[in-house]
Design a protein that fits this description.
Blueprint (H helix, E strand, L loop, with lengths): L2 H25 L5 H23 L10 H15 L8 H10 L10 E6 L2 E5 L11 H25 L3 H8 L1 H12 L4 E5 L1 H4 L7 H24 L3 E3 L5 E4 H19 L6 H13 L2 H12 L11 H24 L7 H16 L1
Antiparallel strand pairs: 1-2, 1-3, 4-5
Helix pairs in contact: 1-2, 1-5, 1-7, 2-3, 2-5, 3-5, 9-10, 10-12, 10-13, 11-13
Amino acid sequence: MDDVNLNGLKEYFNDALFTSMFLEIYNKMDVSYSKGYLGDFIEYISSIFIFDLMQSKFSDGEKILKEDEQFLKKLRKNNLKVSMKSHSKTLDKKITEMGIEFDVYTYDCVICYSNGELYDINYRNWNNDRKTQEYREFQYRLVYNCRTWLKRIFEWLGYNYEKFMDEIIGDKIKEWAKKLEDKELKMTSYSTNKLFDESNLSNSDKMIIMQYYGCLKAIIYFEKMIEKTEIKTSNGYPIFNSEYFFIKLKAVLIDSIFDALPEQESILYDELTKFTNENIPNDFWKTNRKIRRNIHYDDYEEVLEPEYVYVKKYQDIYLEELLKNWNRKINIKIGFWEKFFSFISKIITRIN
């Protein structure tokens, strides 16, 4: 292989490993809302990486089932290419199907929270496909495809996948699983009217927050949870780096939000544009986009260490401001009925 292909292979290996590592954390957990929260995060990162993993020459010609490919394309489109422009047919259809009523106090969404802090809203993950047995089977095959390809690469390099996961990072996986279980996340029905009752946002702006708040919070939370995890060879050469994995995830998220923001009648767009003009250098966007494009492994473009350091600095500034801005525009107050719905939901989860 030439140098570009070797760099692409390293990138492929790193993304596949951390996607699979989160699956191993998931498998160590008991059934809980925290496990479901991690499951949604795995589905999100899988929709970003696995489509390109299976398209890459490194997949050794392995193909995904045709029906799975259709699910994956829809999932990928939902996570990466969402239009929030006013009167979008897709937007209007989803609002209608979910029964969203911004102007009426009704329980029209489900939120994930802990100690009064919002973690996710079910808008992004809501679709009719999720109700079917076929989709649940697809979710299972989706994440295990990643493990299958990773095992093949391990074998090619002369390593044993199970031994690596158990002996090298097994204790870390158990530690992270316990840390997430101790988080005690809860879920309850909630009203979008109540959620945004202290803001004067347009419906498009509200949908931006409902679509991407959970992605933003999950990336920040899980990056902090596993800290900077770097795995090296016996002679000190780094082969896996969680920081690169999350920098790419953040690059994808920033690009998705930027593309989705409506430019007209958008308070979010105006406020974010003002902040970026004052605080984010113009050349950041080019390098961030370069890292985002490296989800296409066969067209990998080398990113130097100073570029990673530079982009991470301004990604964190940008996303920290974004989260603060959105938190000022939402209202999370867990009253009697929210606690009641959370209690009932917990009982149903245990029964199932």
